[in-house]
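Support reply, case 0932

Customer input (verbatim):
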Amino acid sequence: MDEECVRACIGLGSNLGDRVKNIKDAIKLLNNPDEIKVCKVSSMYETEPEKVYDQPEFVNCAVEIETVLAPEELLVRLKKLEKNLGRTEGVRWGPRIIDLDIILYGNLIMEKEGLQIPHREFENRIFVLLPLAEIVPDLRSPLSGKTIKELLDECQLFREEVKKNG
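Our regenerated output:
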């Protein structure tokens, strides 16, 4: 990749079929030397579903990439990859073979129809922050200026408070 590269973070999730294989396959297909270079891959974490609870648990992971693609082009590439891996349209927040989301794209803040960067609610989602904290703990959110590690610590403290007081 000779062109100007941007560092971005992608969140991956799967809760249907062989969840780990689905994520590994997606990472393999994501890595394209001309346009996308996978730099770091987190461990995989099993997490409970949010919003729609009557479904299998997810396996989540995050990758840091370098890309020459614009955010809109990257989104198109991710949606095409999901489709190639067997994802079909279903219930929002429902079960899926694979889910690929742009979490961060450099320091960009943008909101368009179908694309919000940083990904909405990422600062409050342990299933996103936990794998990100493993690979980019000191990366700062362009929204709050806090590091991924700080956001994860705050999110976990909040969840502990809710458990204590709930």
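We compared this against your earlier run and they match. Two observations from our side: The radius of gyration is 16 Å. The beta strands are 6-14, 36-41, 45-47, 58-67, 99-105, 110-112, 115-117. Please reopen the case if you see a mismatch on your end.
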